[in-house]
Structure prediction request, 273 residues.
Amino acid sequence: MRIPASLAFGAVVGAAFLVLALVGVFWTPHDVASLDISNRVKPPSSAHWLGTDHLGRDMASMLMVGARTSIAVAVVAVGIGAALGVPLGLLAAANHGGIADDLVMRFNDLVFAFPALVVAILITAVFGASAVNAIIAIGIFNIPVFARVSRGAALPLWTLDYTRTARVAGKGAARISAEHILPNILNLLIVQGTIQFSLGILAEAALSYVGLGAQPPTPSWGRMLAESQTLIGIAPRLAILPGLAIVLMVLGLNMMGDGLRDLLDPRLRRART
Prediction:
């Protein structure tokens, strides 16, 4: 089986950032909480590979820990969305046209009416700005996405012979959904999860940019962009480096999602052959 080029490129980029984040958990060239005002806005050197920021912090270390923050927030938020959204979508498909289906779809419409940024503002107004609240906001927004995808993919499967046979055999809707429906839509959910992961990275950066994500001293790519605005004419690399990291990460994950779709979708496989 030939691996799509987009999948290979996306996997390499995603793996590179994942390794960067994992290394940042155990080691960084410098302490990201250490301020050295005497060495602020220094160009790249042997001591500071990517230079220093406006507070004298090492940019390479900031990017490494920022990758860890962005990936952790996106993974947990997408996990929350999938863990709650997929069962809701399967429930709606199993009760198509019924009360449960209608309730799930109206819930989806309600959540979609409030973007993640608005939800984050509401949560922050009550509990304060933090990475945890950013995770909750992004996770809530992901629930209806997974619910709609799983419901739409599951509905046609309920009309097939093997699901009807399972019903005649006495299996309930929950068991059929778990044993017959979910395994057959898992490929689609994996692709959607990859895409939502890239959107989670982007959402975390946006929330941190406006001050609603990870708070100091925890580095975040979005906050690094916000803090570099006043110095963009003096040291443009302070904005270019975190911006480039966000672009590459999101681009890589989106290409990996497209590649997985091409690889796992049997209709696309047949079209290529």
